[in-house]
Sequence to fold (560 residues):
Amino acid sequence: MKYMNNRRTFVKNGLGVFAALSLPILPAEATPASNYRPKLGVAGYSFVNFNLDDSLKMMKRMQIQYLCIKDFHLPFKSTDAEIAEFHKKLAESGVKGYAVGPIYMTKSLEEIDNAFEYAKRVGVDLIIGIPRKEDLAYISKKADEYGIRYALHNHGPEDKLYPNSTSIYDLIKNLSPKIGICFDMGHNARDGQDSVKDLKRYSSRIFDMHLKNITEASAAGKTTELSRGVIDIPAFVKTLKSIQYQGVCSLEFEKDMNDPLAGLAESAGYFRGVVDVVCP
Amino acid sequence: MKYMNNRRTFVKNGLGVFAALSLPILPAEATPASNYRPKLGVAGYSFVNFNLDDSLKMMKRMQIQYLCIKDFHLPFKSTDAEIAEFHKKLAESGVKGYAVGPIYMTKSLEEIDNAFEYAKRVGVDLIIGIPRKEDLAYISKKADEYGIRYALHNHGPEDKLYPNSTSIYDLIKNLSPKIGICFDMGHNARDGQDSVKDLKRYSSRIFDMHLKNITEASAAGKTTELSRGVIDIPAFVKTLKSIQYQGVCSLEFEKDMNDPLAGLAESAGYFRGVVDVVCP
Fold:
């Protein structure tokens, strides 16, 4: 059947998965418009209460292939051998660790240095970070030196540094093109911003994304399943397509964190359903 | 936000759920075309390994509001008091039991009589059944007498009676309009049929549906998450809309039956995602 012989073959064929995972994830590598499909991933924080093995079991069950690596799964001080073992374990579940973070680095320049060294040793080209504003020029220089992109994360109205994507963009727009945004569409909306418009507005600088929905567009809003919140996900996916977003859309499910699989799976299904119609 | 103030309010507002559930589910009651949205349910068989309480916990978590009742959750010999208690329990989880079955009745007319009495006492207007072909005229008469519809279930290439929807339609097309099909789109495709075309072709007689996908369009095909199979679900949902299907689309997830929540949730999410784009 036609449907099976195009995009679905990729998911169903184990070899296909691993071949795909060996491709580097770089914004420069534009997918042709007609075949555009956003990548679905998971932000490691969704699994804060689970060890790596149990997290990977969930990812495998959902057939999600991209993980943003948190240090509770791969400590900063890991040896090269431990890092190799980590990647091997991910590959066995059909998963690629595509970035590290979010990493807080609000105390010293040494934390920034360590983060770049860690990312280099892990072998990813993207750090999600929360730095001091005064260190941004330093980070911009490091990003160019290492050839590693750095995306700042916005965390909503409680975040005195980066409540929304505009607050980040205004600070980075004249820095290296390797400095960008990890667009938390939920916290952005919790701060009263329009996450569909901001996705388009800052598309050139959005390197990563925390895919989620929220119960209300205010500080009281909580993460909810992708299908059940106030952000218009179909409009969001149409915008992903129109900007040809090349990063990963990583689910960060800050609900039922002791038993997140059902909500993550419902959210993954919803995203795929919207994508299958918007990006046929 | 616009998005929240229309269709989502229904899901989020507990009173809204119960108000909606008090509406009868009848094909005559056409939803206006512009607001068309198919109803999502679960076929009780998905919970064959779970008692009613645990099944309802899963339904509540997925916010699925329609259940096709299997006798392992509500035995045929239940008293009226037990039936009342059953409905009360469902309502507490925001769930409506909208039909009974599938019920096998291949041995005697008494089984048919019992099924109609059971449906009447349960208070539903729809029986899903597997009868003998020679009893169809009898069933047609009973359906008219009771004012209860009767939908025959197709069960794929292994089913000597009703392998696909065509085999049912050809037998019932001249019977009472209360005799129809519980369209198992997966088993229909396993029998080599085109489930999107058959949905359209037999739309006047499709009263209920087992929503699923399958790994391949042959006898070897197995149930899989809605997003992962060979049936083109976006095309299927577009057809639901074009025929203005008024029944329930009930997930029957014959995979991971000892731990079905993740697959059911992913499937529910996928369906909602497709529907949100196709039926905005």
Q: What stands out?
A: Residues 46 and 257 of chain B are 7 Å apart (CA to CA). Residues 35-278 of chain B form a domain with the TIM Barrel fold (CATH 3.20.20.150). Residues 1-31 of chain B have pLDDT under 50 and may be disordered.
